[in-house]
Amino acid sequence: MASVEIAAEHERILREIESTDTNCIGPTLRSVYDGQEHGLFMEKLDARIRNHDRDIERMCNHHFQGFVDSITELLKVRGEAQKLKSQVTETNQRLQNDGKELITSMEELKKCRVQQRNIANTIDKLTHCLPVLEMYSRLQEQMSAKRYYPALCTLEQLEQTCLPRAGQYRFCSIMAENIPKLRTHIRDTAMSQLRDFLESIRKHSDKIGQTAVKQAQLQRSLDSSLSIQPRTLIGRRGRKEAMAAATESDGSPLSEQDSGILDVEDEDDDDDVSGAQELVDFSPVYRCLHIYTVLGLRDVFENYYRKQRRKQARLVLQPHSNMHETLEGYRRYFNQIVGFFVVEDHVLHTTRGLVNRAYVEELWELALSKIVAALRTHSSYCDDPNLVLDLKNLMVLFADTLQGYGFPVSQLFDMLLEMREQYGEILLKRWNITFRQVLDQDNYSPIPVSTEEEYRHYTSQFPMQDPELEKLPFPKKLPFSEFVPKVYCQLKEFIYACLKYSEDLHLSSTEVDDMIRKSTNLLLTRTLSNCLQYAIKKKNVGLAELVQVIINTTHLEQSCHFLEEFISNITNVPPDTVNATKLYGTSTFKDARHAAEAEIYTNLNTKIDQFLQLADYDWMASPPAGGTLSASDYLIDLIAFLNSTFSVFTNLPGKVAQTACMSACKHISTSLMELLLNPEVRQISIGALHQLNADVKECESFARAGPVAGFQGDTLLLAFSDLRQVRKGGVRLQASRRTCKLQ
């Protein structure tokens, strides 16, 4: 059994050796040598080798004939192969000989192909490089010509399109490195030009504004009917629309050749006034705006522009400290403001968003507050009505000019109405001086006229209607003095001065009429009234002068309705219009006349007192020995004075003369009564009573003579009735005392 197992094991190992790769046979053989029967195994291996040899021999014998046949065929093929080889060698030799020229031609063709390819590559590279060089050359030309916006566009095209196509070349790298520098240079140069532009328009805003104001003035003179409507400057809208359309169509500045401010000093003051915008070249603004837009810095540019213009606005709106001294100061101030806002209005309409309506309105609101404050301050220093009137005309033109550009100017007209009150006060002060000069220079005597021309001259100055006076032959006298026509003319001049201020204020006829009437009332009730009171109550005014004042004021009072008609004619407002202001001239002249009358009464009594002070009664005088006792000398002089004074009262209204006469008589009676009843007079003789009786008779004789017409019966004698009763009582008392002594 052991031998069988060993034989089976050897058989397995042999099969494994036959079927296993020689690389893996080592472990198999090791298992054989590990055992003790390797000799038996070697015998088995030899037997197996012999078996395989017999199989190989048997197979070789079986295929030998085929092998011999194959060798025979192979020998035959070798001969044919030798022949083919010689033929191939010959053919190759002939081919080599014949292909030498072709090879030479192919080498030449290869070189040509290489050259052609190089040329094509060169052309392709030059095709991409030449536009770069041409564009860079164009860029240099544009930079030299200072055409920065096209240069920036060229720079953008060079950077974005041409350089990427050209490839990596040294000159391209140099160009690429220079592009940021060129862009910075363009930006800085554009900003520098903008600064120059801003500085230039700040310096020339006066000239720009002056041109715009002239243009508005020309527009108003061409069509005065537009004076109550917003004014549109000639050609302004057309130019704005054209410029705006040009800007929006291609997004580029209107003209690269326009740069800076035109030479405004060379502008002639011709009748053909050019537009204010034509004095200014706005291309630096457009150019800088487009450049900063392309650079992506539009917001930076807008903020810078607005900030600088706000600073300039504050400078423009700051008036000079002596602006109020001359009209030229105001004109320059207004022209600068107009010039500033003309520029802003043009920029608003010709750029897309650099400034907007809200920004311009904000600036205008600031300007309005500053202007009103400055005018309120500086106009308060003015005391010349002509300067105020010129300032008003200048302000109206200023407001109309800016209104033509679409700016609201209602506050300016409100300021003009406020200044109207100041103008009225200045006029009142001026006319106060004028009235006082007229009153001081008047001779308070009726005006003598010798010829018809003189008469017509005075009647043309003062509306007088006196048919009886006209019938009198020359020479004759007008009842009033020079004061009347002069005052009446001055009243008309004052009304004209008020009317001048109301012109072009866009007021209705009713408002103008009301304004003139109120101002005239102030002149009458305050200024003229005070002047008349001054003339009446000043020292050394005689009764004759006061009488003439009464006559003058009477005629002026009668002329008040002519003043009403005069105002209605120049304002085209009927005097009977509802709510129309009435003139207070009648009451003014009445008050002045009453004051003069009171002053006459006072002065007359004062003069009587002066005469009475000369009275020197001897209250213990002896009775007269015989004959008629004459009146006292002082009383005779007083009566003579009264007669001469009342003779002047012939032209006075009857009641005034009568009142003055009655007042004088009563005052004489009262004064004599006071002398008689004076406590210091303790005793009165019959002689003194006789002298007093003679004086009373003289007074009664004066009263009976009727120094002033109009008294009925013995009315004037009643003034001395009390004195007569006291005198009679004294006489009876003295008689009774004498009787007692005799008894």
Automatic annotation (TrEMBL):
<feature type="compositionally biased region" description="Polar residues">
    <location>
        <begin position="249"/>
        <end position="258"/>
    </location>
</feature>
<dbReference type="GO" id="GO:0005886">
    <property type="term" value="C:plasma membrane"/>
</dbReference>
<dbReference type="GO" id="GO:0090522">
    <property type="term" value="P:vesicle tethering involved in exocytosis"/>
</dbReference>
<feature type="domain" description="Exocyst complex component EXOC6/Sec15 N-terminal">
    <location>
        <begin position="44"/>
        <end position="212"/>
    </location>
</feature>
<dbReference type="InterPro" id="IPR042044">
    <property type="entry name" value="EXOC6PINT-1/Sec15/Tip20_C_dom2"/>
</dbReference>
<dbReference type="GO" id="GO:0000145">
    <property type="term" value="C:exocyst"/>
</dbReference>
<comment type="function">
    <text>Component of the exocyst complex involved in the docking of exocytic vesicles with fusion sites on the plasma membrane.</text>
</comment>
<comment type="similarity">
    <text>Belongs to the SEC15 family.</text>
</comment>
<dbReference type="InterPro" id="IPR007225">
    <property type="entry name" value="EXOC6/Sec15"/>
</dbReference>
<dbReference type="InterPro" id="IPR048359">
    <property type="entry name" value="EXOC6_Sec15_N"/>
</dbReference>
<keyword id="KW-0268">Exocytosis</keyword>
<dbReference type="InterPro" id="IPR046361">
    <property type="entry name" value="EXOC6/Sec15_C"/>
</dbReference>
<dbReference type="Pfam" id="PF04091">
    <property type="entry name" value="Sec15_C"/>
</dbReference>
<feature type="region of interest" description="Disordered">
    <location>
        <begin position="239"/>
        <end position="259"/>
    </location>
</feature>
<dbReference type="InterPro" id="IPR042045">
    <property type="entry name" value="EXOC6/Sec15_C_dom1"/>
</dbReference>
<keyword id="KW-0813">Transport</keyword>
<feature type="domain" description="Exocyst complex subunit EXOC6/Sec15 C-terminal">
    <location>
        <begin position="411"/>
        <end position="726"/>
    </location>
</feature>
<protein>
    <recommendedName>
        <fullName>Exocyst complex component</fullName>
    </recommendedName>
</protein>
<dbReference type="Pfam" id="PF20651">
    <property type="entry name" value="EXOC6_Sec15_N"/>
</dbReference>
<dbReference type="GO" id="GO:0006893">
    <property type="term" value="P:Golgi to plasma membrane transport"/>
</dbReference>
<dbReference type="GO" id="GO:0006886">
    <property type="term" value="P:intracellular protein transport"/>
</dbReference>
